[in-house]
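thought: fold this chain, then report.
action: predict
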Amino acid sequence: MNPPLPSSVAALLDRQAGDRVLLVDDVPDNLSLLHDALDEHGYTVLAATSGEAALACAAQARPDIVLLDAMMPGMDGFEVARRLKADSSTAHIPIVFMTGLTETEHLVAALQAGGVDYVTKPLDPRAVLARMQVHLQGARQARQTRQALDAFGYASIAVRSSSGRLLWQTPLARELLQLYYGTVAPQTPAPVLAWLRKCLAEMAPAGAGDGPPPPEPPRLCAELGARRLSFRLHHCIGADVEPGLGGAPGGDWLIVMREVSDVAVIRSLGLAFSLTGREAEVLYWVVKGKINRDIGEILGASPATVKKHLERVHAKLGVETRTAAAAMALTRVREMHPQWEV
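observation:
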């Protein structure tokens, strides 16, 4: 594990107004040339002279873009890029390669390793700045989108449809995926990936031709007790749309998640009908259409215990059947929580 940055350094970086650029090159003259040019244009420049130092700096300082030398002793730039893209905390950072290699196979290797662009040596600071601006604009928009979603109780992830790789996730998304599926990046939960690919396959024929735009794909929902997590396919964020999946759109897709908890609904049922906490939970799941065996599994009780709770619920509500109890409870819940859905 990399040691954390000193608090004074971390605080200084957080106060910097300019974008953070991680400059990686083992040649001091190259570092000096670009450092001065970037500094003059208001960027916060972080420098590393080896692959290992670059990975440590990226993990700790989270730069907005990386300018990466392709050929370095020890760990070369291609390996650095692969490792940055393999880590969900740095996978979203755009990488621009700096290389003196102009053969097609080397440039292809740079892009395959995770680079979004390249500049050739000897370096022209003006060209480097121009290329950076293009990619920083997209990075800023993506960062602002992620921050806004988390701030309003949403969570977001980006998934590459062709490989199924989870490219990045907001902090809230990380917590929710671990809670509901027990997975961590770069693994995308299997149900989420299957849903994404099904959505894309259905979008392909609907989006062909000059007809109306395809309808919004159906949402995916996962339940955890009285909590529900919904997934909505937002839009393609990849610069290039990859073919594949039977002609379906490929690329990288932004998925927005939202968790809704029915704890307040259960509490309202208890207050409305003078039920105990467990009786309110049983009634809630009856409204949701669950049978006694299913309710017992959810609550960690036997079907016989659930039946006893339900009998007391019937008595307090003045009804004789679970259907009547569910109907009465549903009416009361919709009065108190108009937006609630079964």
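thought: worth noting. The first strand starts at residue 20 and ends at 24.
final: tokens above.
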